[in-house]
Amino acid sequence: MTSFYSDEELEILGLQEYGNDISISRKCSIYSPNKIILGNHVRIDDFCILSGNIIIHDYVHISAFTSLFAGHSRIEVESFCALSSRCAIYAESDDYSGDSMTNPLIPEQYRHVQLGEINIGKHVIIGTGSTILPKVSIGEGASIGAMSLINHDIEPWTINVGIPCRKVKERSRKLLEYEQKLMKDIAMKQ
């Protein structure tokens, strides 16, 4: 027995939709699986949390202890992405200003929950310990350094770091050549 769910167990999980070559750790916590869509070649490691309306495309790796909290909004992770360990992605968050109460045990009329979709573009890599807040779009090919706080949109094909996250330089697009070669190899094998 492996540490990942078998095909039969994946069926029982009740995911809305999933493709081929799915590796989800048995130690992963999944809430509202009927709202989760997984593409092909997806791996989700130990102690991850997936909650709410989440779409994960092809060839995506989510490392251990990473959490995706979509709540009443949505998180979409496009193909060829890597989320390093201990990342936290929030499409919904309490208002920390003090103008309202916080935490899910408080009735809604006393809370001011901020929510907004998160889109993580194709070929994005998020460094360990990074946090993404609601209403953020990370452009294709962007790279986020470890321990970064992403609270605004990130430009495509840039390298970004810090709290708050800021652009430090452009990112190479050479990996697109490898994507083309990979797709060609796959097509030849079929």
Describe this structure in words.
The chain is mainly beta. The chain is built from 2 helices and 20 strands. The strands form 3 sheets. Strands 1, 3, 4, 6, 8, 10, 13, 15, 16 and 18 form a 10-stranded parallel beta sheet that branches. It has an 8-stranded mixed beta sheet with strand order 2-5-7-9-14-17-19-20, with no helix packed on it. It has a two-stranded antiparallel ribbon with strand order 11-12. Strand 19 and strand 20 form a beta hairpin. It starts with 6 loop residues before the first helix and ends with a helix. The mean pLDDT is 96.
Q: Specify the biggest β-sheet.
A: 10 strands, parallel
Quaternary structure: single chain
- Based on CA atoms alone, the radius of gyration comes out at 17 Å
Helix percentage: 10-25%
Mean of residue pLDDT values? 96
Total helices: the number is 2
Shape: globular
> Cα distance, first to last residue?
29 Å
Tell me the total number of β-strands.
20
Proportion in β-strands: 35-45%
Structural class: mainly beta
Low-confidence blocks of residues: none
What is the H/E string? HEEEEEEEEEEEEEEEEEEEEH
What layout of secondary structure does this protein have?
Layout: H1 7-13, E1 17-18, E2 22-24, E3 29-31, E4 36-38, E5 42-44, E6 49-56, E7 60-62, E8 67-77, E9 82-83, E10 88-90, E11 92-93, E12 114-115, E13 118-120, E14 125-126, E15 131-132, E16 136-138, E17 143-144, E18 149-150, E19 158-161, E20 166-170, H2 175-189
Structure, briefly:
By secondary structure, this protein is mainly beta. Helices cover 12% and strands 36% of the residues.
